[in-house]
Amino acid sequence: MIRHKHRYHRHEGLAQVYRKSRDAGYRRTYDSMCRQIRKMKLNTPKKRKSYPKSTYRRNLATYPGERVQIDIKYVPNECIGFASNHNRYYQITAIDEYSRKRYLELVNELSTYSTSNFLKRLEDNLGFKVELVQTDNGIEFVNDQDITNKKTRFEKYLEKLDIKHKRIRPYSPWQNGIVERSHRIDNELFYSRRRFGSYKQMKKSFIRYSKRYNNIARKILNFKTPNEIVKEYHSENAA
């Protein structure tokens, strides 16, 4: 149990790991849990690998669906003005590099279960076939290759959909820069302006905002909207 809770909550601190363990039935003290973590060597910082200097240059996408970046954003706690059984909420974001069209979902669990379910609705909501998905190396997408080569639920579902998968270089978030920048926009346009009084209110506002985003003109798109770019491409390339 401790190993499982530590894996999913270590980024929030050992106090949170202990709280989640207690909620799941753990009855020993906090100090006892910490001793177990030390024995299992779970809290030993991994030696950071060195990598050659990046020469990364992003090739521009030439059509919708050629390359879609997916990432996770933590919903700021400052927005949550209601009591909840869930410690955190997360935004799963997919953004098409060519059109900048996005599909978003709000979830309460950071796992490959959530991200694989997200894939089930991805293409229908974007409105076109996705050829390649690009993600970072988070455990909500992939396993640590130093530990196992076993594919995650997320990776298996990509294969089922016949979608290629590309991992970005470790410690190189700029390689997923388009989705990272879109998250900064979300903070400015959505999260920093709201405090939700209920989950229902948050979900309703989130859906409305996510749809609105695809109808906002962008300078990078020559002042067109993502939806207009997709429609324009399909009109020009109709069989």
TrEMBL record:
Any Pfam family matching the protein: rve
Integrase catalytic domain: residues covered: 60-234
Molecular-function GO term, any one: nucleic acid binding
SUPFAM superfamilies in the record: Ribonuclease H-like
Native source species: [Clostridium] ultunense Esp
Superkingdom: Bacteria
InterPro entries: Integrase_cat-core (IPR001584), RNaseH-like_sf (IPR012337), RNaseH_sf (IPR036397)
Lineage of producing organism: Bacteria, Bacillati, Bacillota, Tissierellia, Tissierellales
A single BP term in Gene Ontology: DNA integration
Name assigned to this protein: Integrase catalytic domain-containing protein
